[in-house]
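#struct-pred

JT: dropping the chains for the assembly here, can someone run the whole complex?
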Amino acid sequence: MTASPAVEGWFTTGEDPTLLGSRCTTCATVYFPPLPVDRAGFCRNPTCDGEEFETAELSRRGRVWSYTDAQYQPPPPYVARTDPYEPFALAAVELAEGITVLGQVADGYGVADLKVGAEVELVIEPLDDELLVWRWKPVVELGEEADQ
Amino acid sequence: MNTDVAVLGVGMHPWGKWGKPFTEYGVHAARAALDDSGVDWSEVDFVVGGETVRNGYGGYVAGATFAQALGWNGARVATSYAACATGAQALDTARARILAGLSEVALVVGADTTPKGFLAPNAGERWDDPDWLRFKLLGMTNPAYFALYARRRMDLYGATPEDFAAVKVKNARHGLENPNARYRKEVTVEDVLGSAVVSDPLHLLDICATSDGAAAVVVSSVEYAKKLGLDRPVRVSAVSTVTPTFPNAVMDMPNISTDSVADGTPERTFKESIADAAYEEAGIAPEDVSLAEVYDLSTALELDWMEDLGLCKRGEAETLLRAGETTIGGRIPVNPSGGLACFGEAVPAQALAQVCEVTWQLRGQATGRQVEGATVGITANQGLFGHGSAVLLSR
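RK: done, full complex below.
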């Protein structure tokens, strides 16, 4: 079977994938994760009483706010992809929309490849055999010259 | 308007992994606090219980549970839930009724029996619950959040794993003679750095355990304390239970994201606003503080709290730590009780345990860990889902 997004409507899976947020049609505040589409949503800006939202594609690149890893296997509902367990890295990334979004770091990268302020970009990778999830991939690997 | 209430008595059940029902610990702590206060249980006209919870899900009806265990006396009852900030909210509830003149003497109790290992969500699939999704989609444990904050200190302020270990060494020493502490053993920097890395850069000994324990506080109006002959009781001068203001720009457990700061980064972070509200309410400045009991879920988090409380400027906590200023005998001792490093966390009891410690410190009764001449103490913690907590006590 083909792997599908772990959560419907949170990200696209095409060639240049993006996270999908919700933009308040009243005050333009952007939220991620997106507000649920199957019930009433409320803008969380205290000066706005908006209840209607449109889908907003978020920036594919952002700057690392901070990062770490999970050297012990997290408890359920997390499902390890390998046996024995292999640690993975995590990063919180600041996007141009002003939102910081957590994600695992792309396969093959660890904390040694990250730095606060470093640029990363969104990729879509398997969470398990059936589900896809967003991940953050370092744009310039440490030790390489920035290609600018 | 004077908004102080008097602390008549404090008591605890020692922290540990005893595996008994939480009511047993709570009653032990309540009786200890009542003994300390000299107030008979029959005189208590308001009971507030801190609710026992598991990652956001209600456990037991704690207020009435404690009242029944102590023997129904007809007191009014309330139950508080504010995750790690539960104890402060419970105390604030008692304070409000006393200041309103609706109650005279209140007993506030928090107690917990914790499971082993990582705190994890309850079973079942909940695709609309951020606390479930962060585990399912990201494998994001609580220590991973603590590690994000620790790593920022390293990359922005030059903190080192040795600094984090030094916090543990200090707190372990502070707690050596605390009869209620679970861990009472010296720890070296090498011990911390030699323990397994849980979430880089944090080692096992940088992260607090989960514990069983209970704490209780008896509070009354200042007038009632006078009637008991207490002319100079420890006073609760402020309780801050603030929520964040929008936009909340710092990644908070258990969230996957922050609010957007597209319209400008707020002046203060949520954690800074917690302490500010307490200082403002009490008319007390950070410079007046003799000691602080802060929520050291990790060693590095203690350094964050020092700055959030205004005890030093942003990025300067390591300088104070290295100079020994946060050790007992230094300029501003932090966690003289030994903190969560020596206790482990017993969620609904922990904010009250902080109040117990500051009370003992201000009375000069903190044997083996006394901060000499202490007149003002502040406690601080942050509960999941937007619960701030800071209590200012003075004498």
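JT: nice. The two ends of chain A are 41 Å apart (CA to CA). Chain A has no helices and nine strands.
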